[in-house]
Design goal:
There is one protein chain. By secondary structure, the protein is of the alpha/beta class. It is 44% helix and 11% strand. The strands form 5 sheets. A 3-stranded parallel beta sheet has the order 1-2-3. A hairpin with a 3-residue loop joins strand 6 and strand 7. The structure holds glutamic acid (GLU). Glutamic acid (GLU) binds next to helix 6.
Length: 444
């Protein structure tokens, strides 16, 4: 059974980089009939807030990435305590008392003497008397995981054969002096308990994976498969982290970017597959394949996202947007305007234009199109053919054609020189309103 998880820390809102990880996990689960767990890594009580947690949840819902189950690390402290006891009992966790300043000084000395800045395991050599003395002097210790220090290799689902030599790493601190467990441990305990089959996350976690594979083994858990996606970069090749504010999902949403466009782009970015507009998330599942993602950083371009968002609207069925359109709009309205809008706010503008006569200045109309038009409006209900019949008659009466014929009419009826097809707008404006608008025009 495929079981994956998206495990953000509620220390901020989601940005496009996190959203990509969430989406890829979600698509992986959907494609393989698996289970998608949404887990909040909220053991960092200083930086985690309920507001951020609620915000992340809202962001995922906005994207349409529903989850099959939910877990919160702060609810699972008992489980971590059990794992900590087990690791202490097996001798893999050892107490240490060094302060951050002491460690920093040692690090500098190591670098100065051209040694790798790795924790020297001084605490591992303390005898009981020394430990008792340190406890008396400094209080409770923090706890480090004694790495085996070996080549940890795995067949990464994205990067291929990947190796981390844990001999080159410091023994990680898994428990703080105040007793709180740290992410490196809690994540593994969760992944074991929730039977996670594949851990799919960003490339920034590759080193963690080396350490965590040792932890899975030390805790007697099954080691999941791993896939590390390359990071997103901007047009200059720089990481996105500096501008995360502007690339938050909340910010994009406010800008009017469609959630489906975010997914359509992020599901293909970093693969050789073309980015195509889609109308629904399900349309992304079939073509999804984790193996298509490359090792090179993926370039994220906000302008590409905005253009894609407009293209997604063009193919979106009325049912997918009706709740977000002004009260009273119908399918005919949506079909008429969806090809000429960048955001849904533009659709609302068109709704206003159809219902409230726009401000129209003097219109250049040397051929007298506007004078001839009212009497030539076809009899009977207006439909998709009426515009053609009407303009043909006006053309015949005035000799105007092309722009000289169409532009004065478009301006008189909509106040704009471009927009949706007049053939579709005409029935939506309606006969009475057309007559009224024609009557009000200042013909120069
Ligand atoms: N909370 C971690 C993060 O946001 C989760 C990493 C993981 O997927 O294991 O980076």
């Amino acid at each position: 059974m495929v079981r994956v998880r998206f495990a953000p820390s509620p220390t901020g809102r989601l940005h496009v980089g996190n959203a990509r990880i969430a989406l890829v996990n979600w698509l992986f689960a959907r494609k393989l009939g698996g289970h998608f767990l949404f887990r909040l890594d909220d053991t960092d009580t200083e930086r985690s807030t309920a507001e951020f947690a609620a915000g992340i949840e809202a962001d995922l819902r906005w994207l349409g990435l529903g989850w099959d189950s939910f877990a919160r690390e702060s609810d699972r402290m008992d489980r971590y305590a059990g794992a900590i006891e087990a690791l202490k009992a097996s001798g893999r966790l050892y107490p240490a008392w060094e302060t951050a300043e002491e460690l920093e000084l040692r690090r500098k000395l190591q670098i100065a003497s051209h040694k790798p800045p790795v924790y020297d395991r001084a605490a591992l050599r303390l005898d009981d008397a020394a430990k008792a003395k340190l406890t008396a002097e400094r209080g409770q210790p923090h706890w480090r995981f004694r790495l085996d220090g070996r080549r940890i290799a795995w067949a990464d689902l994205v990067k291929g054969e990947t190796v981390v030599d844990t001999a080159s790493l410091s023994d990680p601190v898994l428990v703080r002096a105040d007793g709180r467990p740290l992410y490196t441990l809690t994540s593994v305990v969760d992944d074991i308990d929730f039977a996670i089959s594949h851990v799919i996350r960003g490339e920034d976690h590759v080193t963690n994976t080396g350490v965590q594979i040792e932890l899975f083994e030390a805790l007697g858990g099954a080691v999941p498969g791993f896939g590390h996606l390359s990071l997103l970069v901007d047009a200059t090749g720089a990481g996105l982290s500096k501008r995360l504010g502007s690339l938050s999902l909340g910010g994009l949403r406010e800008e009017g970017v469609e959630a489906i466009a975010v997914s359509a782009l992020l599901a293909r970015l970093g693969t050789a597959d073309p980015v195509m507009p889609v109308a629904a998330l399900d349309d992304l599942v079939t073509g999804f394949d984790l193996a298509r993602f490359g090792k090179a950083p993926a370039r994220f371009d906000p302008a590409e996202l905005r253009a894609l968002s407009a293209h997604c609207l063009q193919i979106m069925p009325f049912d997918a947007v009706r709740e977000r359109l002004p009260e009273g709009t119908g399918e005919a309205f949506w079909i008429a305007v969806r090809g000429n809008i960048a955001t849904l706010a533009d659709a609302a503008d068109w709704w206003r234009i159809l219902h409230r006569a726009p401000e129209v200045g003097p219109i250049e109309d040397p051929a007298g199109v506007l004078a001839a038009a009212p009497d030539l409006l076809p009899e009977g209900p207006l439909d998709g053919a009426s515009w053609g019949i009407w303009t043909k008659a006006i053309g015949a009466a005035t000799g105007a054609k092309g722009k000289a014929l169409f532009l004065p009419l478009r301006l008189a009826l909509t106040g704009r020189d471009h927009g949706p097809e007049m053939r579709l707008l005409l029935p939506l404006i309606g006969r009475d309103e057309i007559t009224t608008r024609m009557g009000k025009i200042d013909r120069g």
